[in-house]
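WARN  no MSA supplied for this record, continuing single-sequence
INFO  ligand: 4-(N,N-dimethylamino)cinnamoyl-COA
INFO  echoing inputs
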Amino acid sequence: MTQVVLTEIHGKVGLIRINRPEAMNALNNEVVDAIGAAVDAFEADENIGCMVITGNEKAFAAGADIGFMKDFDYMHAYKTDFITRNWERIKTTRKPVIAAVAGFALGGGCEMAMMCDMIFAADTAKFGQPEIRLGTMPGAGGTQRLPRAVGKAKAMDMCLTARMMDAAEAEKAGLVARIIPADQLLEETMKAAATIAGYSLPVIMMIKETVNRAYESSLNEGLLFERRVFHSAFALEDQKEGMAAFVEKRKPVFKNR
Ligand code: DAK
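INFO  complex generated
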């Protein structure tokens, strides 16, 4: 049987590939549960410092699987906690996750990419929230994360007209961190992930948590949170090592503590 999600470890980077090419990587429970299991495994592995989620050259994911959910009724969606039960695992991991997006990232696919900490887009990437065409609406964060990323005007435009954004527009609008030629997307994303994973793991986690705090709090609360975490970073052996290495003009050796 085909595995709908493939995982690999490259040095300190955990790679997750969505593997349903026959269905444009549409996301059903099997796929999302398998992504969650991969995230659990990489989170538990002290050697891993960063994760990458990707699809194939045609699609990151063309949305939640329409065939899978078309007959859901309210009671089923509510009782099974559709979306929240398994999709949000990507959001809760404390290690950084980069979405490497080529081709379509639509509906739930766009939402899953936005749950990651940053998106690297191939020049072929297309982002959209076309649920309105199906008589429904975004349900995995599209109406909330998209306006925070690209502003209200573009988010309304995309959710209400179902138009897609190409990579250039997505980068200009702030949805995407980098645009990379399609044939180099994975290689370049893995390089960036390896750079991150080469730093001290507790510091990586502190920075992720603190940047995310910017979305959840007022500026003053966020600054206070940052200052407290920054002060706590002086308790790290890796801080002593990093600063000593700078002064001694050598490369630091981090021990993740
Ligand atoms: N689900 C299931 N199958 C899909 C799919 C999807 N989202 N997207 C594509 N496929 C399948 C196609 O049916 C086709 O299968 P076969 O006919 O070969 O068996 C195969 O993938 C190849 O697709 P196409 O033949 O259509 O390929 P094209 O290159 O012509 O077009 C496309 C590519 C991505 C533009 C097109 O496939 C497309 O428009 N796909 C649907 C995109 C879409 O509407 N995405 C949003 C899905 S809805 C909620 C929670 C979550 C959500 C909503 C509510 N609540 C909690 C209430 C989320 C909703 C969504 O994500």
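The two ends are 41 Å apart (CA to CA).
INFO  checksum written, moving to next record
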